[in-house]
Structures are given as structure tokens and as C-alpha cells.
User: What shape does this take?
Amino acid sequence: MNHHHRKVLHALFSHPISANIDFRKVVHLFEDLGAEVENRSGNRVHIKLNGHSAVFAHGQHDLPKEEVVQIRKFFETCGITPDGYPL
Assistant: This one.
């Protein structure tokens, strides 16, 4: 994982929750982690990672805080935390 992807992962898990995370960078992070990314209708993206799947909406460039929380929970479910990827 490159430095840019690690920064995005740490931003997703930061406190307070960041509202300044570009969704495209999150998609690149998913791809770097080996996820299957499928674009769906209605500005949605279907993600399959480590045997788990989720659908996220991407209506804007930056993620709303609620979406950041959902992505954070999905990463935790998949066993991915920033502890395993130090900056």
C-alpha cells in the first residue's frame, strides 16, 4: 500500500470524523486492498472485500460524515484497521 492510500485509511478512522475525504481516493484504496469494485446505477458503488460486500453512494466529491462511518465499519468488518498500515 502506498503512502497516499495509507493517509486515506488513517483519515477514515480519524477522530473527529473527517468530512473532507474524496470518494475517488477511497475507491482507489479499496482497489489497492484487492477489492472488487463495480459501478452501479444511481451513483452507487458495490464493493466486495475479504468475503464481505457493501454498497456505497457517491453523490458528491467529498464523503458526508455518515458515509465515512459506514466505510469505517465495513473496513472493521473486513478486518482492516490503520494499525496494520502505519504512516
